[in-house]
Amino acid sequence: GTCDKMARKLGSKNALDDLVMLDRISEENIVKCLQNRYNQDEIYTYIGPVLIAVNPFKRIKGYYTEGKIREYRGKKFYELPPHVFALADDTHNQMINKRENQCVIISGESGAGKTETSKLIMRYISAVSGRSAAVQEVKDKMLSSNPILESFGNAKTVM
């Protein structure tokens, strides 16, 4: 398909990482690309600076390890394959280097994985931020918000 041809043209053996690079952007081509990536357990795809995640409804071995956090830490946004840790690292770096507040918008249907994604972002930021007592206090508060997020996330989930 168009997605595979474009990936090969760009020198990638995997399905296209960034849908902006499609020859023809259409709903059909976007869905085909996302499906190709999903079938290869590549659940994250960029469309420019936006990260699309497709819930695999299963654990993918090695996808969210401490090693994966180290792999994405300090890398440029497009340097490695799309991943929630790339987004989290870019957000963290913008906050630290530019001293600007950051916001990540996570949207999707019930059961799409929004709560899980927010927990992964918080886990990443917690792992890469400092170790001082003040920083630790903020990290503890941030991570302790997970049960609250869970309760909101599960309140309407029927899947």
From TrEMBL:
It holds the Pfam family Myosin_head. One of its GO terms (cellular component) is cytoplasm. GO terms for molecular function: actin filament binding; ATP binding; microfilament motor activity. InterPro entries: Kinesin_motor_dom_sf, Myosin_head_motor_dom-like, P-loop_NTPase. Residues 14-159 form the Myosin motor domain. ATP binds at G108, E109, S110, G111, A112, G113, K114, T115. This is Myosin motor domain-containing protein. GO terms for biological process: actin filament organization; endocytosis. Belongs to the TRAFAC class myosin-kinesin ATPase superfamily. Myosin family. Keywords: Actin-binding, ATP-binding, Motor protein, Myosin, Nucleotide-binding.
